[in-house]
Amino acid sequence: MNIFKGLINGMIAGATPILLAALGGTYTYYAGIFNIAMEGMMLAGAFGAVLGSYFFHSWLAGLLCAILGSTLLALIFILFAVVLKTDEFITGIALNLFAVGATTYLLRQIFAVKGAFSSPEILPIPRLHLAGLEKVPVLGEILSGQNLLVYLMLAALLLSVYVIFKTRFGLRLRAAGYNAPSLDSSGVRTAVIRVWALLICGVLCGLAGAYLSLGYVTLFSENMSAGRGWISLAAVILVNGNPWGIALISLLFGFTDGLGLWLQQSLPSQFTAMVPYLATLAALYFYSMRRKRLAR
Amino acid sequence: MGRKLISALLGVLIALALGALIMLLQGYNPLSTYAALFSFSLLGWSPLATTLRNAVPLILTGLSASVAFASGPVNLGQPGQLLMGALFATLGGLSLDLPPLVMIPVLLLLAMLGGAFWSGLAALARHWFNMDEFITTLMLNMIADYFTYWAISYPLYDAEAFSPMTPQIHRAGWLPEFGDFNSNVLVMLAAFGALWFLFNRLTAGYEWRLTGQNGLFARLGGVNIERNYLAVMLVTGALAGLAGGLVVMAGPHRFLKGLGANYAWDGVMIAVVANNGLVGTLLYGLFFSSLQTGALGMELITAVPGEFIQVLQAVIVLVVVAGRGRLDWLLERSLARQKARERAA
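Above: the input entities. Below: the structure tokens describing the complete assembly.
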């Protein structure tokens, strides 16, 4: 029972940042933006979260600063890719490296440390105990007592499904990616839709980053996003942006993340750390095989 | 060429000015900082030699990215390929002990083999299973990172060391140094020359460029897309692997943790900012290396931390690439207006 609970909780912990960032990527995917800057946005968010929580002694401030940090990156993306029409791929690569450089630089400038910063003054994002759910047999311990961001993630998932498929904005969002010229000629400016998509992506990646640095740990370390932004991107591409598919894939990755921790009893940690990336490759393999079959 | 040079120089100057602005906001003196930066990397033989030596991995990974992007495949696996190249060279250097004249070429070949092996995995995944190399190479980067970390922590661990690293490779595998100048520059120049010839003068290179510019046209013209794809992936992987091998053979002579650092990602940025041109990659590689080499001096003399250079590099890339598009647009508009005026007159 305890192993089961540990695996489920590990799965949720691993899936949360990936799902949040991937939901952000969904918006830009539907808006027709090749956005590979999620990795950098997450990192900026993680740094902002620690910064805010440390200086204002409040996790809420941490959350807001996380969103601020990643939205700042989204704004730079908007400036270059949407306003100046620079290549999106190039902008994304440069922004990811900018995020690594800027957070390392600021880590040293503000906290005067190299590598990682941790302090008891950084307040973590609290866990939410829901009295009603705690009483549910078996599942109660899993449903209640999760991190606040886990519940926010669920809300974001449901909201995204609604916004993208049921609202006027969602229709325009999908039109921006599907056929930008006809959206423009219908009197809606594609550029504006794309700006909104990127801003939403910034907010969601900020939450993902906050979960990394204030969720199950309270520290910031250099390059702590460690490829999760890339995995989110892979998740978005694998299911063609479908939010439910993304949720499924994120849970799968979360599961392999937890599995990796569990495997550490018998394998060197370097191999268990590879598991989520291998799982991504496996998912890509099955996706390609399915596409091949469908094409036939 | 003139227009490109002007837009590149303008872009770099604007980026440096933006960097100066950031420094001013933080209360540093930008002029003395830049003076310290470039005097530490360019003034005198020894700084120049260090800059050249540090430029080698940047240029080689940059060339790898340039050739890949210009020929079509989105090979973003340079970081992993560099690590695997370094690992293969280290393995060879630890187990072989030949005369230097044989040893060095063998290790270089091993390094290229290591890189090509890693990019070949991605290429085969694409060839057999139609898996997008954009994601596979990225995932293989992380896997190579952990794999090499394991290799230097357990099987190849140097028992006398305090952190994960291998013992030093045999002396015969060390690249010779001439005073301050390391001969890794010569290897890089040879690779550059060979690549330039292949890319610009041979049929294969012509087909690669053609495929990169218009895959459909190339296919209709009878180019074997699949074979060229595999060739490009292997060649670009070998280049990144060579970079890794040279880092080991020229520098610490062993595989340390964090050996690749940011070389390979910087190489990708260099390729991007050079618009996938080979000569441009060489020049920007030298420029970025002068920034990175000077960062140490900047940190010693002024109070600006060396990490600032990473920020500056990203700013340079964004400004130069965005500026290139804008400038072209402005020039074309003014040309069109001139023409319109002539017609009207």
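Note for the figure: The beta strands of chain A are 116-118, 127-128, 146-147, 219-221.
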